[in-house]
Amino acid sequence: MHYIIIAVVVILLTGIRIAQEYERGVVFRLGRYVGLRGPGLYWVIPLWIERVVTIDIRTRTMSAEQQETITRDSVTVKLNAVLWYRITDAAKSVIAVRDAPVAVYQLALTSLRNSIGQHDLDEVLQERDKINHLLHQNLVDSTASWGVEVERFEMKDVELPEAMQEVMAMQAQAIREKRARIIKAEAELEASKKLADAAQQMANNPLALELRRMQMMTEVGAENNSTTVMMIPSDFVSLAKNVSEYLHDRKQGDAPPKN
Predict the structure, then answer these.
(1) 189-209: buried (b, 16+ CB within 10 Å) or exposed (e) per residue?
(2) Is the pTM of this model over 0.90?
(3) Does the N-terminal peptide bond of residue 101 adopt cis geometry, omega within 30 degrees of 0?
(4) Spatial separation of the C-alpha atoms in residues 210 and 116, rounded to whole Å
(5) DSSP assignment of 140-176, as one string?
(6) Distance CA 46, CA 202 (A)
(7) pLDDT digits (tens, 9 = 90+) for 151-192
(8) Exposure letters 36-51 (e unless 16+ CB within 10 A, then b)
(9) Among residues 122, 147, 150, 148, which one has the least CA distance to residue 134?
(10) How far is residue 91's CA from residue 215's CA, in Å, rounded to a whole number?
(11) Cβ pair 134, 116 in contact under 8 A
(12) In this structure, are residues 22 and 12 in contact, taking their beta carbons and an 8 Å threshold?
């Protein structure tokens, strides 16, 4: 009798299970799903009457192997991507799909190749956030029925052929040279406008011209002490200009008329 009691106690003890905080137990009784157990201590009917499949519901990180695919503009690229997902419904992840991690991984690779094939190379390089969002949406719609939630799916690295890298480097260099020339031209245009304004101001105010001359003499004297500078008053310049104009007009008046 004692042996029978001990055997019954031992059999009952074999049904004790412990699930961690991040685990859930999917219980099947004679092949039928009966519910979830955990976290903590729980008991199942021993002797293979009830079977437990323990599922980890923490977020998992999966690195997608390098994929070689072709963009919409027929450029071959190699891609690496990273996937973050977690199981939100432990029962569905066991009943609806045979191996949820493998299924999610293969679906991610397929979605990555299809999405890159629908975009040009420039979009892949410049609009990565947009493509990552599309990748995420494609997986979310497909994995919801498996009890899996895809948190993020992003491209990690894009590797281009060497010939394409050289072409892009030349293009970038040409763009930089174009910007430099535009900036230089804009600076020269602005400087010419400023010089024209300054000339107009000096023409309207002779005293400003004299002050500018004195400033130039100061600068020349500070840089080259051996330079001899002769100052000619501006009145002489004006007088010479007036005499030249007078002689020119007189010459035009003395010239005989043409037949």
Answers:
(1) eeeeeeeeeeeeebeeeeeee
(2) no
(3) no
(4) 70
(5) HHHHGGGTEEEEEEEEEEEE--HHHHHHHHHHHHHHH
(6) 107
(7) 999 988 888 877 776 777 787 888 888 888 899 899 888 888
(8) bbbeeebebeeeeebe
(9) 150
(10) 89
(11) no
(12) no
CA distance 20 to 42: 11
Tokens of 66: 């390098």
CA neighbor of 74 nearest in space, from 124, 126, 123, 121:
121
- State the Cα–Cα distance between residues 124 and 137, nearest whole angstrom: 17
pLDDT tens-place string over residues 12-71: 888 899 999 999 999 999 999 999 998 999 999 988 899 999 999 999 999 888 888 888
Q: Tokens representing 78?
A: 């190699």
What gap in Å lies between CA 234 and CA 156, rounded to an integer? Answer: 72
For residue 214, the surrounding DSSP H or E stretch is helix 206-223
Query: Which 8-state DSSP code applies to residue 145?
Result: G
Other beta carbons less than 10 A from residue 120's beta carbon: 15
